[in-house]
Amino acid sequence: MPKSASKTLPPIMQRTIRRPVHAIGIGVHSGEKVRMTLRPAEEHSGIRFVRTHLDAPAEVRASAQNVSDTTLSTSLADNGIQIATVEHLLSALWGLGVDNLVVELSSEEVPIMDGSAAPFIYLINTVGLVEQRVAKEFIRITRPIKVNQGDAEAALKPFMGFKASYTFVADHPVYNRYPKRAQLDFSQTSYVDQVSRARSFGLINELQQAQAINKCLGSSLENAVGIDDFAVLNDDGLRYQDEFVKHKLLDAIGDLYLLGHPILGEFEGYKSGHALNNKLARALLRCEDAWQLTTFGEEPRQLETPILQPAVI
Ligand SMILES: [Zn+2]
Predict the structure, then answer these.
(1) How many separate domains does the chain show?
(2) Helices 87-96 & 118-127, crossing angle to 10 degrees?
(3) Is 310 a domain residue?
(4) Cβ atoms of 194 and 246 closer than 8 Å
(5) Do β-strands 201-203 and 181-185 pair in parallel, antiparallel, or remain unpaired?
(6) Is 308 a domain residue?
(7) Are residues 162 and 263 in contact, defined by beta-carbon separation less than 8 angstroms?
(8) CA of 26 to the centre of ligand 1 (A)
(9) In the beta sheet, which residues pair with residue 268?
């Protein structure tokens, strides 16, 4: 492409929220009520969780290396302090381009809200975002990297923007009625419109198994799509025709945002879940020749392909 045809875009700066905002909900796994406060945070401080209501407030960084449990959700732990079910909030923060934030929690689990990322986006939009004084840092993938677990795979490839595809594999009469593959290029697709509203989902008999190991104790049709042998049980049905596979993408985006920066690259997931998403993130961090931190803050940049634009509501 001749240089004159390339696009000149303004710098991309780090973002935080304009002022604190609160929400109250329940933890989907603990069933416990939790109060969450989101607070603005300084440049380069990242996403940090703070447990209040302890003898001394304790902090856990949103980091792939702090992932401690991936059974049905992604949990973090540091110095014995646990933060559970972080993936939907992190996915929303990626969608809004939030780099720096303090997340205070009165209990150990992020509230599940409606089982999607949309309520977090709504909450943050009530206070708005502010651009900060330093450039946003992206993790630019410089060579392909792939991990697997059985026949499940998760991979990242170089791409100047962010694309994600996911293949959901489950042979069930209800799942078989809906699309099992989604492929989205976020330079052309709104995360907020097309992904953020996709809810958690599960089979009712899987719910009973999860509750036997003290998971999903707060799960209900208020915060998940429930499925029996024949049908979706929620009165209003699905929010998207491909809501199941879109939720898997929403989860993967949240899990990968634990890298601490948005990815410039292409993600491909095949049956991957929280464990494999974290394995991919850790593998990437270990392979220092597979990525570079990149900013577009100092000079207006010229790109032939539109770069990831933070969602604008
Ligand atoms: Zn999820």
Answers:
(1) 2
(2) 50
(3) no
(4) yes
(5) unpaired
(6) no
(7) yes
(8) 15
(9) 155, 165
Q: How far apart are CA 90 and CA 50, in angstroms?
A: 15
> Which residue type does 302 have?
Q
**pLDDT tens digits for range 206-220:** 888 888 888 899 999
Q: Cα of 248 to ligand 1 centre, how many Å?
A: 7
Give me the domain span that covers residue 42.
13-135
Q: How far is the CA of 152 from the centre of ligand 1 (A)?
A: 17
Give me the pLDDT at residue 10, please.
76
The answer to pTM > 0.70 is yes
Quick check: 117 and 94 in contact, CB under 8 A?
A: no
pLDDT in tens, 54-63: 999 899 999 9
Q: Of 100, 135, 170, which residue sits at a domain end?
A: 135
Q: Are 48 and 36 in contact (CB under 8 A)?
A: no
pLDDT digits (tens, 9 = 90+) for 116-152: 999 999 999 999 999 999 999 999 999 999 999 999 9
* Positions marked active-site: 274
Which residues neighbour ligand 1 (ion) by CB within 5 Å?
200, 251
Q: Are residues 160 and 274 in the same domain?
A: yes
Distance 72 CA to ligand 1 centre (A): 8
Write the CA distances from 300 to 15, 74, 243, 308, 311, integer angstroms. Answer: 18, 37, 37, 15, 20
Separation of 116 CA from ligand 1 center, angstroms? 7
